[in-house]
């Protein structure tokens, strides 16, 4: 029988695990957060709502701040917490500790729309480097006096991306395997399509009563989760196929492919940030298709073999 869910002023409480909904979960710099009561107490991905998280910080109600990965929207309020332990997967810790590393891992074009945007939002939201000292490999069981949290390593979005399975309430937090209609996001230099696909396959096998994501519709039933995770995973194949269909009409440059609606709808590409994200992801698809021997490259043009 599933653990009862109780609505709170800030989200939903299941057992001693409170899911705090972002004030606008569709915005870049906000994501859902989790407060695990008990000893030690955890705040996971602090970014949902300033007022409540500030209260938890000021009242010293948190012992450990755990970031599921290094992205700014999952740690925009880390700096509120003093005299706590900062934790993450060991593969993502360098980019949480140091912005220069973060920068290199995101993209290698210092004047790109993404690079300019990153600097602006990090300054605006006062997102600072954090001294991560607790490092995980992604298979540990964290025990508090009320809760057991099984860490699940789900790389692809980032190298150290973590999901959290709350054993005592039979709930899986998927972080940025977020099941949104846009599909998977892997526009960083260190993102990896094949790892992302394997991670999706991994979480599909985890049976739970509740599935929670960092963005989107918040809590999913098992039936809704299976429906959404299948659609989410199919995006990789669909994007591959869109690229191949375009190449069937003749050789194309990356710029020509990037102007088409492959990841985002064509009308959305007027946004320089979305256009750049699509460009970064198309590059990864092209490299993958080349390794599979499906396409070739002649100087600046890609073509079907």
- What's the CATH architecture of the largest domain? 4-Layer Sandwich
Q: How much of the polypeptide forms β-strand, as a percent range?
A: 15-25%
Q: Uncertain spans, ≥5 residues at pLDDT below 50?
A: none
| Global morphology | globular
* Strand elements, count: 17
Q: What is the CATH H-level superfamily of the largest domain? A: Ribonuclease Z/Hydroxyacylglutathione hydrolase-like
What is the name of the CATH topology of the largest domain?
Answer: Metallo-beta-lactamase, Chain A
Question: Biggest sheet, in brief?
Answer: 8 strands, mixed
**How would you spell out the order of helices and strands?**
EEEEEHEEHHHEEEEEHEEHEHHEE
In order across it, which strands form the biggest sheet? 1-2-3-4-5-6-7-8
Note down, in words, how this protein is organized:
The chain is an alpha+beta fold and 305 residues long. Strands 1-2-3-4-5-6-7-8 form an 8-stranded mixed β-sheet, with no helix packed on it. It has a 6-stranded mixed β-sheet with strand order 9-10-11-12-13-14. The chain is built from 8 helices and 17 strands. The relative contact order is 0.11. It starts with a strand and ends with a strand. Helices cover 32% and strands 20% of the residues. The protein folds into 2 domains: 216 residues, 4-Layer Sandwich (Metallo-beta-lactamase, Chain A); 70 residues, Arc Repressor Mutant, subunit A (Orthogonal Bundle). The model has no long low-confidence stretch (mean pLDDT 94). The protein is globular, with a radius of gyration of 20 Å.
């Amino acid at each position: 029988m599933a653990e009862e869910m109780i609505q709170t002023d800030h989200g939903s409480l299941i057992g001693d695990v409170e899911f705090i909904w972002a004030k606008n979960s569709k915005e870049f710099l906000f994501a859902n957060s989790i407060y695990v009561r008990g000893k030690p107490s955890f705040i996971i991905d602090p970014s949902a709502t300033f007022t409540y998280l500030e209260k938890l910080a000021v009242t010293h109600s948190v012992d450990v701040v755990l970031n599921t990965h290094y992205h700014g929207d999952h740690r925009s309020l880390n700096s509120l917490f003093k005299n706590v332990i900062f934790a993450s997967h060991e593969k993502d810790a360098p980019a949480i500790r140091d912005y220069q590393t973060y920068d290199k891992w995101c993209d290698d074009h210092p004047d790109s729309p993404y690079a300019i945007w990153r600097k602006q939002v990090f300054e605006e939201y006062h997102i600072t480097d954090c001294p991560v000292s607790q490092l995980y490999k992604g298979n540990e069981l964290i025990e508090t006096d009320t809760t057991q949290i099984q860490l699940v390593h789900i790389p692809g979005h980032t190298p150290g991306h973590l999901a959290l399975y709350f054993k005592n309430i039979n709930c899986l937090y998927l972080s940025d395997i977020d099941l949104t209609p846009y599909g998977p996001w892997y526009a960083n230099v260190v993102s990896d399509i094949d790892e992302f696909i394997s991670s999706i396959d991994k979480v599909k096998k985890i049976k739970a009563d509740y599935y929670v994501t960092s963005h989107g519709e918040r809590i999913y039933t098992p039936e809704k989760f299976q429906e959404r995770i299948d659609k989410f995973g199919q995006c990789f194949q669909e994007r591959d196929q869109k690229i191949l269909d375009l190449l069937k009409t003749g050789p194309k440059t990356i710029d020509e492919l990037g102007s088409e609606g492959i990841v985002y709808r064509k009308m959305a590409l007027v946004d320089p940030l979305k256009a750049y994200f699509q460009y970064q992801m198309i590059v990864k698809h092209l490299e993958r298709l080349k390794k599979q021997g499906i396409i070739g490259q002649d100087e600046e043009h890609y073509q079907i073999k």
